Amino acid sequence: LLTIFKGPNPGMYPQVNGNFSFYSGSCVVFMCITAVTTTVMLPSLRDLPAQTMCPHCKHQVITITDHYSGLMAWLACGCLALIGCWPCCLAPFWMDSCKDVEHRCPNCNNILSFYKRL
Ligand SMILES: [Zn+2]
């Protein structure tokens, strides 16, 4: 009985340790991601729809985004116009990556965050 008990133990420990360190590693990464999305939730809303908790209806939602031409789009337009790209200087007004982003709750339609690029 002793030899059977001793047998699997030394073999199992490294395997368990290996699995544990692997899981704890991925767990730390997972906790970082959840910490960013839950505790710092509203400033983390950038230019893409993101999962967050709505402070108005207390639901876990994925935000709806609307893009608006902000200062960044106007500056990019001005710079392109100064360089002489006349037809292209209007491009920032079609490019979502140059626009400010408004995040709304799909549940109660309240504005959750407004991401300004400048
Ligand atoms: Zn809501």
From TrEMBL:
The keyword Calcium does not apply. GO terms for cellular component: cytoplasmic side of late endosome membrane; cytoplasmic side of lysosomal membrane; nucleus. GO terms for molecular function: zinc ion binding. The keyword Oxidoreductase does not apply. It is found in: Endosome membrane; Late endosome membrane; Lysosome membrane. Residues 34-117 form the LITAF domain. Keywords: Membrane, Metal-binding, Transmembrane, Transmembrane helix, Zinc. It holds the Pfam family zf-LITAF-like. The chain crosses the membrane at residues 20-42, 71-95. It is a peripheral membrane protein. Its main location: membrane. This is LITAF domain-containing protein.
